[in-house]
């Protein structure tokens, strides 16, 4: 399935942990994950909505910030125990951006997009170096 060039299989499994654990995933794991997901979701939703309100955003932005990170972490995450979602630290900078400059929520979306672009650029540099120096 994977080419044997530069140990591509190991490199992909190292950076995409879903390739390691998904083949061994069982129904028992799915039930446990569903219970944990419901529990965390019930905790995360009011927290995300409250953080969005404190930042001066609509509740939908809080829900997006709470869910999007978790969905991405399913593929790229490397540990089973982690807390994801909006934080007070990010909230304070986002609120500062909106209130100080009297900007709209479009700037928050742009800020989020640009942070994602910088993260992708850093990942590309890291992967390039990993291929050159395995």
From TrEMBL:
<feature type="transmembrane region" description="Helical">
    <location>
        <begin position="34"/>
        <end position="54"/>
    </location>
</feature>
<keyword id="KW-0472">Membrane</keyword>
<feature type="transmembrane region" description="Helical">
    <location>
        <begin position="107"/>
        <end position="133"/>
    </location>
</feature>
<protein>
    <recommendedName>
        <fullName>SLC26A/SulP transporter domain-containing protein</fullName>
    </recommendedName>
</protein>
<keyword id="KW-0812">Transmembrane</keyword>
<dbReference type="GO" id="GO:0055085">
    <property type="term" value="P:transmembrane transport"/>
</dbReference>
<dbReference type="GO" id="GO:0016020">
    <property type="term" value="C:membrane"/>
</dbReference>
<feature type="domain" description="SLC26A/SulP transporter">
    <location>
        <begin position="32"/>
        <end position="118"/>
    </location>
</feature>
<dbReference type="InterPro" id="IPR001902">
    <property type="entry name" value="SLC26A/SulP_fam"/>
</dbReference>
<keyword id="KW-1133">Transmembrane helix</keyword>
<feature type="transmembrane region" description="Helical">
    <location>
        <begin position="82"/>
        <end position="100"/>
    </location>
</feature>
<dbReference type="InterPro" id="IPR011547">
    <property type="entry name" value="SLC26A/SulP_dom"/>
</dbReference>
<dbReference type="Pfam" id="PF00916">
    <property type="entry name" value="Sulfate_transp"/>
</dbReference>
């Amino acid at each position: 399935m994977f080419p044997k060039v530069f140990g591509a299989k190991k490199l992909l499994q190292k950076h995409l942990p879903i390739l390691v654990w998904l083949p061994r995933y069982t129904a028992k794991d799915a039930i446990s994950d569903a219970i944990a997901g419901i529990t965390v979701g019930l905790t995360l939703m009011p927290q995300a909505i409250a953080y969005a309100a404190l930042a001066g955003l609509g509740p939908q932005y809080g829900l997006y910030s709470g869910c999007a990170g978790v969905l991405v972490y399913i593929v790229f995450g490397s540990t089973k125990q982690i807390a994801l979602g909006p934080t007070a630290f990010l909230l304070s900078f986002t609120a500062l951006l909106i209130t100080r400059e009297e900007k709209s929520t479009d700037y928050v979306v742009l800020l989020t997009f640009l942070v994602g672009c910088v993260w992708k650029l850093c990942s590309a540099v890291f992967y390039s170096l990993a291929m050159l120096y395995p």
